[in-house]
Design a protein that fits this description.
transmembrane transporter activity; Allantoin permease; 21 helices; single chain; transport; mainly alpha; Hydantoin permease; Pur-cyt_permease
Length: 468
């Protein structure tokens, strides 16, 4: 289905649901098996942590973040809604714009980083200068997004097997050419770098949460929570962990500030010319995930505008939104100089701060408060049962965010808890329980029975009459 066609940005009726749940595996395997993930895994080894401790941090962080991300994915088949729309019951029709704007910034930020990594890859492959490479890559990704959502998913499935083969060969070369006893010997434990890598990996995986259910919502409702969770977790965890470990190894053995160069050199040291194969395989995955980000950001932008002022959906609006998001990411990428790894580390830190309270509240509401019982129509009513502003969700978000501040570690501010831990940032471990507990306590006074009683009338004829 092409972007310029009339696919709804909102509810997917049951009659239009299709696909198989195991297709989530290649989508999220390839969602992670590309160069941006590689760069995430190299953060700590480039900073000075040895490969043994970096590998443990990568594996643990990926597992932690992917569990949260996969739980969000289960909401897609159940509700048939994009993730951001489903935030309205917790934050309100207008209040949900808080997380929508954050999501939009995330899309654009990741695409800017992707374009910078793609430029380095194109320079290594064909010698193309940075600025033209960034622009060319962005235009190709936008074209793929315009060609179609379904085409992207079909391509992801093919690329997943190609990338599996490339990673298998790389891993075999790793075990054949490396002195494991030396390389994996534990060195001094550096808690700050360990936690930086752990939460960078967790935050990277968590960042998919803002739109993971956008792609599972096209599956039949009968898929169920368990199957959606397992297929998403396996794809994202295997792809993310494997690729980050490759990045950690490449960064540890070839300490080049450009992780793309480090990957090529490490692969060439195993098999002559294999570096170019690894770069090409990773590069194609970068195109499809950038296309998904452009697709998602354009729909999020339209949703934001539509919440404030009704928009006539159609090809002109969709293409205009796509162009705006493309220009924003290209501008940021062209303006972003210096070390991509440093920029990625700072960006992932900000994402952890912004998304941690939201993910806690959203999951607490879905699994413990409303237990999946929502009115689809009410989510599109500014003055419906969910209201314009939901003070419970907004209060819990604010409290969760404020509770994290003493744990922050940024270039501009280091909180007292982070200082006492030698610069380690544990804010995610604080924000998750605080935001969830505050939200659950505030919801104890909510008249949930009255709300649930209204849902049958509100959602009558849902499958035969337009939602909007």
């Amino acid at each position: 289905m092409a972007l310029v066609e009339s696919r709804s940005i909102d509810y997917v009726p049951l009659a239009e649901r299709r696909g198989k749940v195991h297709h989530l595996w290649p989508v999220w395997f390839m969602g992670d098996a590309h160069l941006a993930t590689l760069a995430t895994g190299a953060i700590s080894v480039v900073g000075g942590l040895d490969l043994f401790w970096s590998s443990l941090a990568v594996t643990g962080g990926c597992a932690f973040g992917t569990v949260l991300m996969a739980l969000h994915c289960t909401q897609g088949p159940h509700l048939g809604l994009p993730q951001m729309i489903q935030s309205r019951p917790q934050f309100g029709y207008i209040g949900a714009l808080l997380v929508w704007v954050v999501a939009l910034v995330t899309y654009i930020g990741f695409n800017a980083l992707n374009q910078s990594l793609a430029a380095s890859t194109l320079h290594e492959l064909v010698g193309l200068p940075e600025a033209p490479a960034i622009i060319l890559f962005g235009l190709v990704a936008a074209l793929v997004a315009g060609i179609g959502y379904d085409v992207i998913h079909a391509t992801q499935r093919v690329l997943a097997y190609i990338m599996l083969a490339a990673l298998a060969v790389y891993t075999a070369g790793f075990f054949a050419t490396v002195d494991l006893g030396t390389l994996l010997r534990p060195g001094p434990f550096k808690s700050t770098l360990f936690l930086v890598q752990f939460f960078a990996a967790a935050g990277y995986q968590l960042s998919w949460s803002i739109y993971v259910s956008d792609y599972s919502r096209y599956l039949p409702r009968e898929v169920g929570i368990r199957s959606a969770f397992l297929w998403t977790f396996c794809g994202a965890f295997i792809g993310g962990t494997w690729m980050m470990l490759v990045g950690a190894f490449a960064g540890a053995t070839f300490t080049d500030p450009d992780i793309v160069v480090a990957l090529r050199r490490s692969a060439d040291s195993m098999f002559g010319g294999f570096g170019m194969v690894m770069l090409a395989s990773s590069f194609f995955g970068l195109i499809t995930i950038t296309s998904l980000n452009l697709y998602g950001s354009s729909l999020t932008l339209l949703s934001v505008i539509d919440s404030l002022r009704p928009v006539r959906l159609g090809a002109p609006a969709r293409l205009a939104a796509l162009v705006v998001c493309l220009v924003a990411s290209l501008s940021l990428s062209l303006a972003m100089g210096g070390n991509v790894l440093h920029g990625l580390e700072a960006f992932l830190g900000i994402l952890v701060y912004l998304f941690t309270p939201w993910t806690a509240i959203n999951l607490a509401d879905f699994f413990f408060v409303r237990r999946g019982r929502y009115s689809i129509r009410a989510m599109f009513m500014a003055d419906g049962i969910y209201g314009r502003w939901n003070w419970r969700g907004l209060t819990a978000y604010a409290v969760g965010f404020i509770a994290m501040i003493p744990c922050f570690k940024t270039e501009l501010y280091v909180g007292p808890v982070a200082k006492s831990l030698g610069g380690a940032d544990i804010s995610m471990l604080v924000g998750l329980p605080v935001a969830a507990i505050v939200y659950l306590l505030l919801c104890r006074s909510m008249n949930l029975a009255a709300e649930l009683a209204m849902i049958p009338d509100l959602d009558r004829n849902l499958e035969t009459e337009p939602v909007r």
